[in-house]
Amino acid sequence: xxxxxxxxxxxxxxxxxxxxxxxxxxxxxxxxxxxxxxxxxxxxxxxxxxxxxxxxxxxxxxxxxxxxxxxxxxxxxxxxxxxxxxxxxxxxxxxxxxxxxxxxxxxxxxxxxxxxxxxxxxxxxxxxxxxxxxxxxxxxxxxxxxxxxxxxxxxxxxxxxxxxxxxxxxxxxxxxxxxxxxxxxxxxxxxxxxxxxxxxxxxxxxxxxxxxxxxxxxxxxxxxxxxxxxxxxxxxxxxxxxxxxxxxxxxxxxxxxxxxxxxxxxxxxxxxxxxxxxxxxxxxxxxxxxxxxxxxxxxxxxxxxxxxxxxxxxxxxxxxxxxxxxxx
Length: 328
Hints:
By secondary structure, the protein is mainly α. The protein is built from eleven helices and four strands; from the N terminus they run ααααααααααββββα. The strands form two sheets. A two-stranded antiparallel ribbon has the order 1-4. Strands 2-3 form a two-stranded antiparallel sheet.
């Protein structure tokens, strides 16, 4: 597939997903690509992750599982792309509709906005209930500032791996590129944990996910900095300084970039020590502003996010036009 076609598909997919998201009726009827990928990962985990094997054997099995996952999902996406591509504009539109299911602009906004609404209307209990839907940490351990920071951190990190990353690989590799990314990211979320069962088996999935998210995390930080330059009350220089100073010190090689950018833009401190389940995680603060975030700060972060999404669409559409002009 020509680069101009994949960038056009990306532009259309971003517009479609922003307008309609992934309809609940469709999810109820057939599920979602991520749930289909998740079933395959679960089967691979159940059949290849054997507890009586050594650490080395389980790590090897995890590498094999990742290769099998990428092969099956990649070939499926390639076949769909090859089937639809000859239909010119109709095929491109159909591919864009399929690809839109791999991007989560609308659903991410809705889930994070629900935390702000929960705090405004239901107080701390409403905020805790809403934030428990999007983060893995224990909501009962969070006060209002903790709930607000958790929502903003989730917004920043998921902007990178739920939107910018699949968009990046879609633009670069068409539908197969986006599907392969989504398969890798889903594998990391399901088995890429340092638990007794998955520390060895999920090693390959976690490392590969770190690798494929590297370009998107940097691009996400840049989009947030650019968005901050367009918003009164946000600081593009503050975002830039926080990224330069703090991003590399996050325990994740990628999450620190969008989180630091968002923290610096809003004058907040994000990340830092926090509790997942019963485990306390030590991490560096991103940003040097106030830690006492509020529901109003969630709303400010969402405004930046909407602008950054618009900038991403503009970048995709402009790149598609430039690629088309060059190809002529």
